[in-house]
């Protein structure tokens, strides 16, 4: 089967590099100049510096070439996905579309599979998610991810696995996409705790209560508990809340310490905090940490006020 990765950011490039070690892969970027640079230098210097692009990886800005592949990995940021799917709906019809984005679409409250179903006729929607930094995947370090697809996906699992990238299968697309989306929000909170100097014990408490929030909202939206406690939920929450490689964590740390942060960096948790807070309020589900992250990132409250409001909540059973 032929594979194309759509979106040549850090993650799309890393996945394309990893899969190209097994066989031919096409990597599509929207900028012709970026493609020219990558083809000449055999490196994505802007998004994934220091990683050589294998000869089996073809880079192109020609969308028709990319869309001729059978399996398409969508590796653009979540808030860009609906526009992309709409623009190319006809060519995408009937394909296997594997979302690699982690987020909730702000305009609709949908995850990637909902957007695919809404915009593309007859497509097979899958989600590839879990604890993995682009640089680790590109370097061939051992990584385990969740591949979620509602139909029988053993073939897809084999197609997208490599000797160092180990995929576990599930049919719970809702749980997989919500785990990946929600952990970004809580990584901002964990970064804030560390940036504000509140300590490792506070971070552990926050991560645990974040996991309780993640489960509460995701189960209400139809996710399965075992998915939340697997790689795409608990696994990715742990990675992202504890590593400064995470951009969401680093944004939180900058908020906590009062430092600036480059607004051009992709931080999916900001829009997702807003979408999640809305979803939770609509359904009457308590998600105080997510509400705090929304208020902090919208600069409606400061760090000490946020911490005080969490600590002043009524005492209750765990
Ligand atoms: N980086 C990581 O370690 C991981 C990232 N992810 C997820 O992958 C997704 C992408 O993140 P990542 O690759 O890191 O982001 P980056 O910031 O590295 O790159 C984003 C890429 O998306 C492209 N892009 C933006 N808008 C569009 C569009 N409308 N059509 C096509 N391409 C577009 C950008 O192109 P341009 O340069 O032209 O703007 C850029 O190449 C996110 O949802 C993230 O959560 C998941 C796991 C790990
Ligand atoms: O999703 C990721 C790790 O699994 C990457 O996290 P960031 O987007 O916060 O860098």
TrEMBL record:
<feature type="binding site">
    <location>
        <position position="102"/>
    </location>
    <ligand>
        <name>sn-glycerol 3-phosphate</name>
    </ligand>
</feature>
<feature type="binding site">
    <location>
        <position position="134"/>
    </location>
    <ligand>
        <name>NAD(+)</name>
    </ligand>
</feature>
<feature type="binding site">
    <location>
        <position position="246"/>
    </location>
    <ligand>
        <name>sn-glycerol 3-phosphate</name>
    </ligand>
</feature>
<comment type="pathway">
    <text>Membrane lipid metabolism; glycerophospholipid metabolism.</text>
</comment>
<dbReference type="InterPro" id="IPR006109">
    <property type="entry name" value="G3P_DH_NAD-dep_C"/>
</dbReference>
<dbReference type="GO" id="GO:0006650">
    <property type="term" value="P:glycerophospholipid metabolic process"/>
</dbReference>
<feature type="binding site">
    <location>
        <position position="30"/>
    </location>
    <ligand>
        <name>NADPH</name>
    </ligand>
</feature>
<dbReference type="InterPro" id="IPR011128">
    <property type="entry name" value="G3P_DH_NAD-dep_N"/>
</dbReference>
<dbReference type="InterPro" id="IPR013328">
    <property type="entry name" value="6PGD_dom2"/>
</dbReference>
<feature type="binding site">
    <location>
        <position position="236"/>
    </location>
    <ligand>
        <name>sn-glycerol 3-phosphate</name>
    </ligand>
</feature>
<dbReference type="GO" id="GO:0046168">
    <property type="term" value="P:glycerol-3-phosphate catabolic process"/>
</dbReference>
<feature type="binding site">
    <location>
        <position position="247"/>
    </location>
    <ligand>
        <name>sn-glycerol 3-phosphate</name>
    </ligand>
</feature>
<comment type="function">
    <text>Catalyzes the reduction of the glycolytic intermediate dihydroxyacetone phosphate (DHAP) to sn-glycerol 3-phosphate (G3P), the key precursor for phospholipid synthesis.</text>
</comment>
<feature type="binding site">
    <location>
        <position position="248"/>
    </location>
    <ligand>
        <name>sn-glycerol 3-phosphate</name>
    </ligand>
</feature>
<dbReference type="Pfam" id="PF07479">
    <property type="entry name" value="NAD_Gly3P_dh_C"/>
</dbReference>
<feature type="binding site">
    <location>
        <begin position="7"/>
        <end position="12"/>
    </location>
    <ligand>
        <name>NAD(+)</name>
    </ligand>
</feature>
<feature type="binding site">
    <location>
        <position position="268"/>
    </location>
    <ligand>
        <name>NADPH</name>
    </ligand>
</feature>
<dbReference type="GO" id="GO:0141153">
    <property type="term" value="F:glycerol-3-phosphate dehydrogenase (NADP+) activity"/>
</dbReference>
<keyword id="KW-0444">Lipid biosynthesis</keyword>
<dbReference type="GO" id="GO:0046167">
    <property type="term" value="P:glycerol-3-phosphate biosynthetic process"/>
</dbReference>
<feature type="binding site">
    <location>
        <position position="134"/>
    </location>
    <ligand>
        <name>NADPH</name>
    </ligand>
</feature>
<dbReference type="GO" id="GO:0008654">
    <property type="term" value="P:phospholipid biosynthetic process"/>
</dbReference>
<dbReference type="InterPro" id="IPR008927">
    <property type="entry name" value="6-PGluconate_DH-like_C_sf"/>
</dbReference>
<dbReference type="GO" id="GO:0051287">
    <property type="term" value="F:NAD binding"/>
</dbReference>
<keyword id="KW-0547">Nucleotide-binding</keyword>
<protein>
    <recommendedName>
        <fullName>Glycerol-3-phosphate dehydrogenase [NAD(P)+]</fullName>
        <ecNumber>1.1.1.94</ecNumber>
    </recommendedName>
</protein>
<dbReference type="InterPro" id="IPR006168">
    <property type="entry name" value="G3P_DH_NAD-dep"/>
</dbReference>
<feature type="binding site">
    <location>
        <position position="102"/>
    </location>
    <ligand>
        <name>substrate</name>
    </ligand>
</feature>
<keyword id="KW-1208">Phospholipid metabolism</keyword>
<feature type="binding site">
    <location>
        <position position="247"/>
    </location>
    <ligand>
        <name>NADPH</name>
    </ligand>
</feature>
<feature type="domain" description="Glycerol-3-phosphate dehydrogenase NAD-dependent C-terminal">
    <location>
        <begin position="172"/>
        <end position="307"/>
    </location>
</feature>
<feature type="binding site">
    <location>
        <position position="132"/>
    </location>
    <ligand>
        <name>sn-glycerol 3-phosphate</name>
    </ligand>
</feature>
<keyword id="KW-0521">NADP</keyword>
<feature type="domain" description="Glycerol-3-phosphate dehydrogenase NAD-dependent N-terminal">
    <location>
        <begin position="2"/>
        <end position="153"/>
    </location>
</feature>
<dbReference type="Pfam" id="PF01210">
    <property type="entry name" value="NAD_Gly3P_dh_N"/>
</dbReference>
<feature type="binding site">
    <location>
        <begin position="247"/>
        <end position="248"/>
    </location>
    <ligand>
        <name>substrate</name>
    </ligand>
</feature>
<keyword id="KW-0963">Cytoplasm</keyword>
<dbReference type="GO" id="GO:0005975">
    <property type="term" value="P:carbohydrate metabolic process"/>
</dbReference>
<keyword id="KW-0594">Phospholipid biosynthesis</keyword>
<feature type="active site" description="Proton acceptor">
    <location>
        <position position="183"/>
    </location>
</feature>
<feature type="binding site">
    <location>
        <position position="102"/>
    </location>
    <ligand>
        <name>NADPH</name>
    </ligand>
</feature>
<keyword id="KW-0560">Oxidoreductase</keyword>
């Amino acid at each position: 089967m032929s594979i194309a990765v759509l979106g040549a950011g850090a993650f799309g490039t890393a996945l394309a590099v990893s899969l190209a070690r097994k066989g031919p892969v096409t990597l599509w970027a929207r900028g012709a100049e970026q493609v020219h640079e990558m083809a000449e230098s055999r490196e994505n210097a802007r998004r994934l510096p220091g990683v050589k692009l294998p000869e089996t990886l073809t880079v192109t800005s020609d969308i028709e070439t990319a869309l001729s592949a059978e399996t398409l990995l969508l590796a653009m940021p979540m808030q860009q996905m609906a526009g992309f799917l709409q623009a190319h709906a006809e060519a995408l019809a009937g394909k296997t579309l594997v979302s690699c984005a982690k987020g909730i679409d702000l305009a609709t409250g949908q995850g990637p599979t909902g957007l695919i179903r809404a915009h593309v006729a007859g497509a097979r929607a899958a989600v590839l998610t879990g604890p993995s930094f682009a640089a680790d995947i590109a370097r061939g370090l051992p990584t385990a991810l969740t591949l979620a697809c509602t139909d029988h996906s053993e073939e897809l699992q084999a197609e997208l696995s490599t000797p160092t990238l180990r995929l576990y299968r599930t049919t719970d697309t809702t749980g997989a996409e919500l785990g990946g989306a929600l952990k970004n929000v809580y990584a901002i909170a964990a970064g804030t705790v560390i940036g504000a100097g509140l300590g490792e014990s506070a971070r552990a408490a926050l991560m645990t209560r974040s996991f309780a929030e993640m489960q509460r909202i995701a189960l209400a939206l139809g996710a399965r508990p075992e998915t939340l406690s697997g790689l795409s939920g608990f696994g990715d929450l742990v990675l992202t809340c504890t590593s400064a490689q995470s951009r969401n964590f680093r944004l939180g740390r900058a908020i906590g310490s009062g430092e600036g942060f480059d607004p051009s960096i992709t931080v999916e948790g900001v829009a997702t905090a807003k979408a999640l807070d809305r979803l939770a309020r609509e359904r009457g589900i308590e998600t105080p940490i997510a509400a705090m992250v929304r208020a902090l990132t919208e600069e409606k409250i400061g760090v000490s006020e946020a911490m005080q409001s969490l600590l002043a909540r009524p005492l209750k059973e765990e």
